[in-house]
Amino acid sequence: MHRARERAGDDRLHDAGDCVMAEQLAEAAVADCLRKLAVVFADFEQRLEATPLIRKLTRGRFEVADYHAFLINLRQQVKDGALWMSRAASNIGEDHLELRSTLMRHAVTEHRDFRLLEADFTASGGALEDIQSAPKNVGSEALSAWMFHEASKPDPFGLLGAMFIIEGLGSIKAKPWGLKVQERLALPDEAVRFLLYHGDNDAEHMKEFEEMLGMVLPDPFIAERIVTTAKVTARLYALQIEEIAA
């Protein structure tokens, strides 16, 4: 009996040790993935700053027509965002139900964000039918096709890299851009709500993003796919902004 209790205690200690080691491996993998994603994002920022539209914004030559073009083209990507997120969630298997639930919550939270863009457009003097009827530009077409392609795969964990780019843009750039637009064009708060809202709220999403990484890591293949997907998404997002006439 004494030996049996010793074996049971040893097994519990062994299991606890394995659990701690697994957690440490996951934390290290998440940290490594975040470092690589940060490098991708830094390159993405440089590409954005070099686009004609953002250069006009940062150099004080931004006009209402530029803002309207920005809102029109951003609306297409934002409207598709909740759709590809929902599709991705539906393709996540039973082994990762918590991740599926998290993505579904994101989709529900953001599925009407494009209405904010419409409201900003009309509050800054635009006609609602103009933003609702505008076609996607070349970059938006490519970005949307890429996102839905990835979301349609089984267990599309690589899309976490895409979310890092898009949510990171919201948390880091949206509010500074919104304030610059407001200052340059003398617009009321109700005309820049989308940018200011995402600047204040996407930081929380980035915290949740780290938790989502922990749900699928450590796995070298998945980590590599997340970084690759981030790189492609960043290139196509930048192309979307490049294609806006400025």
Broad shape: globular
Task: State the distance separating the first and last CA atoms.
Answer: 81 Å
Oligomer: single chain
Please provide the ordered H/E string of secondary-structure elements: HHHHHHHHHH
Counting DSSP E segments of at least 2 residues, the number of strands comes to 0
Rg: 21 Å
Question: How would you state the average pLDDT, rounded?
Answer: 90
Nutshell version of this structure?
InterPro entries: Haem_Oase-like_multi-hlx (IPR016084). The protein has 246 residues and is an all-alpha fold.
Can you give keywords for this protein?
single chain; 246 residues; mainly alpha; 10 helices
Structure in words:
The chain is globular, with a radius of gyration of 21 Å. The longest helix has 48 residues, at 2-49. The model has no long low-confidence stretch (mean pLDDT 90). The protein has 246 residues and is an all-alpha fold. The protein has ten helices and no strands. The chain is 82% helix and 0% strand. This is Iron-containing redox enzyme family protein.
Q: Topology of this protein?
A:
Blueprint: H1 2-49, H2 52-58, H3 64-90, H4 97-110, H5 113-123, H6 128-133, H7 138-151, H8 159-185, H9 193-216, H10 220-242
Helix pairs in contact: 1-8, 1-10, 3-4, 3-5, 3-7, 7-10, 8-9, 8-10
